[in-house]
Amino acid sequence: MRLRRLADPAPGAQLTGTSRSGKADTTMVTLNVTGMTCDGCVKAVERIIKAQDPQANVTIDLGSGRVDATTSATPAALVEAIEAAGFGAKAA
Ligand SMILES: [Cu+2]
Fold first, then answer.
1. How far is C-alpha 22 from the chain's CA centre?
2. Could you tell me the distance, in angstroms and rounded to a whole number, from the CA of residue 74 to the centre of ligand 1?
3. Protein residues with C-beta less than 5 angstroms from the ion ligand 1
4. How far is the CA of 36 from the centre of ligand 1 (A)?
5. Measured in angstroms, how far is the CA atom of residue 19 from the centroid of ligand 1?
6. How much distance in Å is there from the Cα of 43 to the middle of ligand 1?
7. Which 8-state DSSP code applies to residue 21?
8. Is the entire prediction scored with pTM above 0.90?
9. Within its chain, how far is the Cα of 19 from the centroid?
10. In the CATH hierarchy, which fold is given to the domain comprising 36-92?
11. What pLDDT, in 10s, does the model give residues 46-72?
12. Any idea where the domains of the chain sit in the sequence?
């Protein structure tokens, strides 16, 4: 079939493993997280968020409990995951 080639993926199209390369479908999510008492907690919360979205950009302030994440994960998903780890979390 002459037109068959049109359906083939372009060489290198899947190099990054994402089908939306070049289009960051992310939002800025701010959460208030309670129960963080040390840097270990901060790292744990960061890990939890990155488990939801490995591409997430996360900033956490231990003193205020404020968590800013630029991520494709939804606030609800992040709250649920953080609470499952034993912290308190609310969308700010
Ligand atoms: Cu801690």
1. 17
2. 25
3. 37-38, 40-41
4. 6
5. 37
6. 8
7. T
8. no
9. 17
10. Alpha-Beta Plaits (3.30.70)
11. 999 999 999 999 999 999 999 999 999
12. 36-92
